[in-house]
Amino acid sequence: MSKPRDLGTLFDELVDRKTRTTVRLARPLDIAPDFGTTYDVPALAALVRNAAGWLHTAGVRPGDRVAIVKRNHWDYVLLACAAVRVGAVPALLSDQLAPHTLEVMLERLEPALLITTRAVLDTARAHGITLISRAARTVTLEGRYPDTLNLERLTGHEPPAPVSRDDDEPLLIVHTSGTTGVPKLVVHTNSTLVLGLAGGECTRLPVVSARKRDTVCSAIAFSHGRAVPWTISALWLAPREILIADSADDAEPLLRAHPPTTLEALPSTFVRWRPLLERPDHPFRDIRVFISTFDAVHPPTLRAFLNGTRKRPLWVQVWGQSETGPLTFRFLTRRSLSRRDARHPTTRNLGRPAPGRTRLRVVDPHSFAPVPRGTPGLVLAKTPTQCVDYLGERERWLAKTDGQWWNTGDIGVRTRWGSYLMLDREVDVLPGQSCVELEDVLEERVPNVVECVVLGTPGRLPQPVVVTRDGVLDPQAWRSASRDLPALAEPVVLAWEQIPRTGTGKVRRMELRAVLRAGQDTFGTGRWT
Fold it and tell me: How far is the C-alpha of 184 from the C-alpha of 178, rounded, in Å?
């Protein structure tokens, strides 16, 4: 089976392959607000060519960087395709980043063009920051804005011929979650991203790959590095329909009109959609494959979705990083989640490395010597899809690279059976325990809990922070749930909106510490974040 080779001409190649997939959106694209919510592949190819034309007219040339900061939607990927087509290097930045963080990242990028929105610029200006001063030129997507290019004057121009580049030259820049500070700018190439990550997913595998009759739904952060290889592989496998849900709050009409058969979503989106399962006609009843990555999905949420379908569904749990792509896979079923009272719920077991392409090892955090199975340590990974740099922070990238081994910054255990058990991020480590395990157990045992976060601070008891469905936590239920757990501080109950989050829904634990006035001291060093 042939594989895609070029992000810039991806949609032209899909047209040549006579791909008949229909793409349906929960809302119109920000780059095409008047063109509705349904596209075929030729229309998408035309949209990418048109966007390439206005990028070229805006002065973008081969080798330039194009920064994209906007409301979450799939047009992040379409703009990336257009930028690559004219030889530029797109950088996808979440609009959920704080203005001062965006300013730092744009200083590192030095973009020839910033594509953004009035909301992003106005929010930054309210904080005394002028983002347009960090780019040579700026375009806003909703019309005129002072000191920016007028998008209306850029449209309608023919693009130049597609520009080719070496497979090992920079192709795309994405960023890490930034849960502990300013996100790193992760540089990928055609070799790592298109030929490596996307190429692997374009292989049609039994059960897990999209089938011709599938309705494939993605509800992720489209500024994340996952969005590009997902787009390439999803369209390459040519399912009947692709659904794009850009927001957990507004997607229900689309899901009900076109019930998906496979679903990949952010962990936080699965949490937000869980109440829909209480209705007998919920839109997830026909799903045969669930896919989760980005962060942990706790057992109660996972079990609710598996039990809510009419099929015998499979849950594909993926662990990876923006710098490496997927590292391990684990398949979960209703049966594998049937036990509810265990202190070690199964979702922390991340499974095994991808066969034939990824190797993992666990080492002592101080000496970097390998540790025996069953002993916690830093997890190192060796994969051909590893990023090639942190833009503007080369020394930081080198500090995480040991020959061909990449320091994930995660603390884990290799089990006697060869799978990997995840404990915590090194910076969030809790000596002799695991914050993630405690969170799993507490969410499992307290029915009203939507989310639980445990923070470890030297000299203090571990601090649980809890979000409940109704804002109330029953003290007796909590005492019963924590009966056999290590001593914990009294839980703090917050609303979902009070928890600081990244663009992928991850909890910003350092910022949450500030909300709680808990200080910034942790048991970990944070050297490899």
Answer: 7
